[in-house]
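REVIEWER CHECKLIST
Item 1: Sequence provided? yes
Item 2: Single chain? yes
Item 3: Sequence as submitted:
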Amino acid sequence: MKKLLLLFMFPMALNAQVVGTWKLAPQAGALGVGPALGDISWWSNSLGDVATRSCLFDDSISFDANGNMTHYMDGQTWLEGWQGMNPEGCGTPVAPHNGSNPATYAYDATNNTLSVFGLGAHMGLAKVINGAELTNPVNAADTIVYMASISNGGNTMTLDINFGTGYWRFVYNRTQLIPVANYNITFRVDMAQYAGNTANGVFVNGSFNGWCGSCNPMVNTSGSLWEVTLPLAPGAYEYKFTVDGWNDQENFTGTEPCIDPINDGFNNRYYVVAGDATLPAVCFASCDVCTNATTFRVNMNDFVAGGGSTAPGVFLNGTFNGWCGNCTPMADVDMDGVWEVMVPLPVGNIEYKFTVDGWATSEQFVGGEPCTITTGGFTNRAASITTASTMPVVCWESCVDCPAGVDELNENGIVIAPNPASSVLNVSAKSEIQSIVMYDVNGRLVQSVSNNGASASINVSNMNHGLYLVSVTTNKGVYTQRVIVE
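Item 4: Structure as written out by the authors:
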């Protein structure tokens, strides 16, 4: 009997961390969606949406100690087109997403998941389920599993869910807060533009540690970034970053926006602790992040040779500009087919890609290329920004520059046809062809043919559609031509 009792109590003990009533946090970004986990750059609610969508933000979800879940909507919630509301707006909840069906839940603190069970049971937006977004209420799920993290002393719950092409994030707060003695505050500073020596350490000093000098050393986490996490009670604090104890310190004029409002003759940084927080990695002696002039360059010659047009403009899109489409235009000043743009970027990891005409045409990668990273089903270029730099020139959809010597003088009368090709590619020359090789735009060998005659054929029927380079070797040298397989 004791063993059975323990087994019964175990899930209840796990659920205890979420037992209580929760509502969407009345803040910007409580609802958001984007291409990767934690990235809500595609869309997120504004502070004004909290009032506009008040019928959603006042919905409450209660979890009891026995594993039961209650979704209370007070007769109104936010409805979308797939639920018959056009335009979107407040309306009577639509079954089965109206909280009327019995629902249960399970919180797994080990795997950081929150699972809800029952037809129509959901968190955040009703349309979001694992691997998809609903287009009709009749397709409602009876089980949804969210990635869950608890913060702010147990008062904030952040839920993430992959819906196939990206991630939604929902942020909830308890309606009755658990008293918290301390919150975890992570201080960060970027020493990239500091001219002195940091060999003896970087420190944070403030009213929370009596301006003690070297009692709160920071850790050099990567490159020029230093950080430390301290447990602080709720309240307002003054602080600043120092080097080697108090041998050097930040100096401010008092007009900066991050400086304390206290007129005591000292100009210090100022922060009000109200929950767990990771502060921005500000530049030493500045309220802003350090930026590094980073120049991106892409060779569009193969793109144009393959039938594309750069007339609508070439653009840079990435995590640093919210994948905004056409807000970061590039330029080909010397008309050599290489487009460039300089962007000031903070230290850190970025994802990006080149596009044409905003988002009308974008680079596509298969994944696994040395310059790319695949996150949440999306494959983008990746880079780590550590200092001001000029990126190497890369060919469109390639990790390297476009091959040199393409379409050079054809001294041997080599003909490669048809172009585009769909099934067979025929190659002929005035003299003996020694070899034929095909490369994709990433420089990877696709086919290789040895030959001892003046003509040859290559089967391309099973190849992926796209642009390839065909190099033909004769006694006159090597001739390379761009070929499209369609």
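Item 5: Key structural point noted by reviewer: The chain is about 5% helix and 40% strand.
Item 6: Recommendation: ____
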